[in-house]
Design a protein that fits this description.
Layout: H1 6-29, E1 31-33, E2 40-42, H2 47-65, H3 71-85, E3 96-100, E4 107-110, E5 114-118, H4 119-122, H5 128-143, H6 146-167, H7 174-209, H8 216-238, H9 248-251, H10 257-264, H11 279-286, E6 290-291, E7 299-301, E8 304-307, E9 312-315, E10 321-325, E11 328-332, E12 338-346, H12 353-359, E13 367-374, E14 377-386, E15 389-398, E16 401-409, H13 415-428, E17 430-431, H14 436-439, E18 443-449, H15 456-462, H16 469-476, E19 490-494
Helix pairs in contact: 1-6, 3-5, 5-7, 5-8, 6-7, 7-10, 15-16
């Protein structure tokens, strides 16, 4: 452990005290009135700067996730969002609500009124009021300027340390750097939880003012808590970390006292004492919506991957988690020690796969390079040594595309054992067969009214869903883990 001498410690303490005064002056200079509370917050960005952040990053979000190509659904979500934004604390902003073409369960907001919800999250909601609860929560982040306040906090810490090292050279040491790292980390982690709770309260308020049942906020939390439990069980089985919704919707238990208090406080804003739910209207709007992977991005079926548009299929090792990104496919082994990443690139010159590796990938020192051929496709593979780490590079030609496989491990001692799987995956690439074309079709949400013969086990048995079909159907309808279909109730199944 590094220990300061008493004299050095006194000098550092004095310098930090002087700098604290400078930061206090900076904080006072950067205060702005909060649109929600009316209090003065530490903000270094003007509203114009806030709006420019949203404008600049909106295209990046669309590029990363994709915009869901159902204009009727986009218009519907915009209308629900507008009804909430119009009764918010910043009703003069122009809000843009976008449904993202992603199976990930998430919703988030950019500064300036850019709000996003994934079709993955929408699939698990069961009423218009629940949709409004999610959008209202995100509007709350915008109206309270949480993103701007968070960014201002980061800038203040960085600016404070930079200013300090100029004025007080003794602050350039490792000890003082650690102090500022702790300060910055504590400041930001402290903001997050309070901001999420504040957004829950604001969202509930906007729900009530717009005529919705504010308790829908709690229903959303229960839906997402069930999803989180299911995801945790799946992750545990597969030896990986769970990924879930970003806010307190996931981190709060649904009986959290403070959460119930802020939601309950919103009831005084209700117009007629009983807010609308809009279950049937919502189900009508999402009927036919894509569930899970889209055909444009490729379909995962257990350890298989099928791409209808590009006309190929590939098999990954059993038990590995397959991650579908817009520009690549990544498979991670149980425990996370090994991974395979696959990308496709245009073949612009009629060159051999070996030459593609050297000319396009700029790799000219492969070890044990060899031609490979499988399913009538030609390719080349070899090993790459970089800084004591060994990887396998494989390129397979299919049509006018070169499919590039990059595979490696964290623990180099396990490479030889896993390398068999690396080569097997590359050789599994093949043209989509006629039978596989059905497997490459996306799932669609089908809303039906349950009759006496309907139940989740029978639906699951008939479903094309290969991963926990019974639990997935219950999650979709808010009946996880032990609920059952009710006769006469409209419910979601997967076609």
């Amino acid at each position: 452990m590094f220990v300061l001498s008493s004299a050095a410690g006194r000098n550092l303490t004095q310098s930090l005290c002087l700098l604290a005064g400078a930061l206090l002056f900076l904080a006072l200079a950067g205060c702005a009135q909060n649109p929600v509370s009316g209090n003065h917050d530490f903000v270094l960005l003007s509203e114009d700067s806030e709006l420019s952040i949203g404008r600049a990053n909106h295209p990046k979000i669309i590029k990363q996730y994709g915009r869901y190509s159902d204009e009727a659904l986009q218009s519907y979500v915009q209308g629900v969002g507008d009804s909430l934004a119009n009764v918010s604390h910043r009703d003069k902003l122009t809000y843009r609500f976008t449904v993202l073409d992603s199976p990930v369960i998430n919703a988030f907001a950019l500064p300036g009124g850019y709000i996003y919800i994934t079709r993955g999250l929408m699939a698990y909601l069961n009423s218009e009021a629940e949709l409004a609860a999610v959008l209202g929560h995100e509007i709350g982040h915008v109206t309270a300027r949480h993103g701007v306040r968070q960014q201002s906090a980061v800038q203040a810490v960085n600016l404070g340390y930079t200013l300090g090292t100029i004025l007080f050279p003794e602050l350039r040491g490792a000890a003082s750097q650690n102090v500022f790292n702790i300060l910055g980390g504590s400041l930001l982690s402290g903001y997050g939880r309070e901001h999420e709770l504040e957004s829950d309260g604001l969202g509930a308020e906007y729900l009530a003012k717009a005529g919705y049942d504010s308790k829908a906020m709690l229903d959303v939390i229960r839906v997402l808590k069930a999803q989180e439990v299911f995801a945790a069980e799946q992750a545990k089985q597969q030896g990986r970390e769970v990924q879930s919704y970003h806010g307190l919707f996931a981190s709060h238990p649904d009986n959290d006292t403070r959460l119930h208090e802020v939601v309950g406080a919103a009831e005084k804003f209700s117009l007629n004492g009983k807010g609308k739910r809009g279950r049937d209207k919502y189900l009508d709007k999402i009927n036919g919506m894509t569930f899970g992977d889209s055909e444009e991005q490729g379909i995962r079926r257990e350890h298989h991957f099928y791409h209808l548009v590009m006309g190929f299929a590939v098999d990954f090792p059993v038990g590995w988690q397959v991650l579908n990104h817009p520009d690549s496919i990544k498979a991670v082994s149980s425990g996370g020690n090994a991974f395979i990443e696959m990308r496709a690139a245009d073949i612009n010159r009629k060159i051999l796969p070996k030459d593609f590796i050297s000319q396009r990938l700029k790799i000219d020192k492969l070890i044990a390079g060899q031609k490979i051929s499988s399913h009538g496709l030609d390719g080349y593979t070899g090993l790459l040594e970089q800084k004591g780490r060994r990887s396998r590079i494989s390129v397979i030609y299919l049509g006018d595309k070169a499919f590039v496989f990059f595979s490696s491990v964290k623990n180099v001692k396990t490479f030889n054992n896993t390398d068999v799987e690396f080569l097997k995956v590359a050789k599994s690439l093949h043209t989509l067969s006629k039978a596989e074309k059905d497997l490459a079709k996306a799932f669609k949400i089908d809303v039906v009214r349950a009759n006496k013969s309907d139940n989740y086990p029978s639906w699951a048995k008939k479903s094309r869903v290969s991963n926990s079909a019974l639990q997935q159907l219950k999650l979709l309808n808010g009946h996880y883990p032990a609920g059952e279909l009710e006769v006469g109730l409209r419910a979601k199944r997967l076609e």
